[in-house]
Write a structure and sequence with these properties.
heterodimer, A: mainly alpha, Four Helix Bundle (Hemerythrin (Met), subunit A), B: alpha+beta, 2 domains, 3-stranded mixed sheet, 3-stranded antiparallel sheet, 32% helix
């Protein structure tokens, strides 16, 4: 008898987040092409979240295969105050993850992005996605416009393309 | 053979000169009220600085142009700071900053008092704030990063519209803190 799907899931890790992000990004493209734009945005928001989290835990933990306990994910936002910003809302706040990533890098000697526009770009893209995405989208019947889907896709596409530099 | 001089690479994306000059002037001598809101963070461990600007004048610029404008202005004021000493240079409009949770404090009139307000006096405060007086809106958004900034705005409105102490409220936007959802 094959192992059930949930039992086949690996623990959270940087590598798992990045691999899952690429799959959900591709799923979103198929949904958008089929006119299911709200569902596409719903998945793309998680793509951004996973890539940003992967960047944070790659910095904090180093090894990409290391298991990330759930508590470490929920506790990550406690670092915000030390890094000079207030984390608003829950652990799905994309701007919070982006700021955490960029500020952690800024604080780490030799860790900052080589171009000041790159870190700003990470935060700006996350903010653009977060302006149109919440994890609660799944509870609503709203239909996203083509323009809204384009905004989210463009920002997420940039994060996907730069994922190994985040 | 003709010699062509060009500026290339990331710094070729420059911020609009007038906007850069205005921001540099603000960095040299900040006004006590209104846009742009500028936040300069230093990271002692790395020795780097980060500059975040919230300003509606950035609307219409690309992310790269905004970064370049903020960086150009900062370096005009701090000519000895190289770009490699700036961790990030970020620009938001107030609408974007509000959506990102960066302007949690809003100054608003109570609904009952709103129709009685002197529209011209309110518009003057909005202009000083740096925002556009949107006549379609019931009341233009006046949003701030800190309660102190919002209090300063409320005081300005009281100075312009004496006797309106009971009219102006400061509302804080609070996001649900449901960290258990993952």
């Amino acid at each position: 008898m094959p192992t059930p799907l949930l039992d086949r899931c690996r623990p959270h890790s940087v590598a798992e987040f990045r691999a899952a992000a690429l799959q959900r990004y591709a799923d979103g493209l198929l949904l958008a092409a089929a006119g299911r734009r709200t569902a596409a945005i719903y998945l793309w928001g998680y793509v951004a979240e996973m890539l940003l989290k992967a960047g944070v835990f790659a910095l904090l933990d180093g090894a990409t295969a290391k298991t990330i306990p759930l508590k470490d994910i929920t506790d990550a936002k406690l670092l915000a105050a030390d890094l000079g910003f207030k984390w608003a809302g829950n652990a799905h706040n994309l701007v919070g993850w982006a700021e955490l990533l960029v500020r952690l890098r800024s604080d780490l000697p030799g860790g900052a992005y080589p171009n000041p526009a790159f870190g700003a770009g990470v935060i700006a893209r996350a903010a653009r996605v977060y302006g149109l995405w919440r994890e609660t989208l799944r509870y609503h019947k709203n239909v996203a416009s083509a323009a809204e889907a384009h905004v989210v896709r463009a920002a997420v596409e940039w994060l996907v393309a730069t994922r190994n530099r985040l | 053979m003709p010699v062509r001089k060009r500026t290339v690479g990331s710094r070729a994306v420059g911020g609009p000169a007038a906007l850069v000059a205005e921001l540099a002037a603000e960095l040299r001598s900040p006004r006590p009220f209104g846009q742009p809101f500028v936040e300069i963070d230093t990271f002692p461990r790395s020795g780097l600085t980060a500059v975040t600007v919230i300003w509606d004048a950035l609307r219409g610029l690309t992310d790269e142009q905004r970064s370049a404008a903020v960086l150009d202005a900062y370096q005009q004021v701090h000519p000895n700071v190289g770009a490699d000493r700036v961790a990030f240079a970020l620009g938001y409009t107030t609408a974007e900053a509000t959506a990102a949770g960066k302007l949690p404090y809003a100054v608003r009139p109570t609904l009952a008092a709103e129709p009685t307000l002197d529209r011209a006096a309110v518009a003057a405060v909005v202009r000083e704030y740096g925002g556009a007086d949107d006549r379609r809106a019931a009341f233009p958004a006046l949003r701030f990063p800190t309660r102190e900034d919002a209090e300063a705005c409320r005081q300005k409105l009281l100075d312009r519209l004496p006797g309106t102490e009971a009219v102006w409220t400061i509302a804080e936007t609070v996001s649900p803190d449901d960290a258990a959802f993952l």
